[in-house]
Amino acid sequence: MQSTTKSAFSAMRRILRSAESQARSLMARTGLTPAQLVLLQQLEGGAERTASDLAHRLGITQATATVMIKKLEARGLLRRRPGAADRRQTWLSLSEAGDQALHIAPDGIQAKFAAEFDKLKDWEQQMIIASLMRVADMLDAEADAAPLIDSNPDLGAARPQTPGPSTDG
Questions:
Q1: Per-residue pLDDT tens over the stretch 98-141
Q2: Model-level pTM?
Q3: Which domains does the chain have, with CATH numbers?
Q4: I need a labelling partner for 149 at 20 to 30 A (CA). Which of 75, 87, 137, 155 fits?
């Protein structure tokens, strides 16, 4: 194997280790996966969104969003409210427990990356994006993957989650 190939693998391993470390830290402090944290962040500041809007914003399927929402709701982190104009539509918002979870969550790898990435010049950002997209293509990665780093999507199963009070309304 060429030294440049080894260097590329080493860099990818460093990224994956960092993502896994951040995910473990998040799980230990909040019981949340990175994907769940990003979903809750979409509701920060009193925002209300529908499940389909959350799915669209996260770049995930409606089915995946529904599973995540049910888990978060079972833990008492989300509230549901029927729509005023259309009672079939359900609006989601953070519960007090969800807001507290966001406040104790450590800064994730996404926040760290965004802070450093934003400091780069436009041409540097474009080069990084092109390189990452090329690597993703080389690895046959999904084109519609959500814009978050979660190297272990099943990490949430590592700790039993105690259901919170029902917040159906």
A1: 999 999 988 878 888 999 999 999 999 999 999 999 998 998 86
A2: 0.71
A3: 3-158 (1.10.10.10)
A4: 75
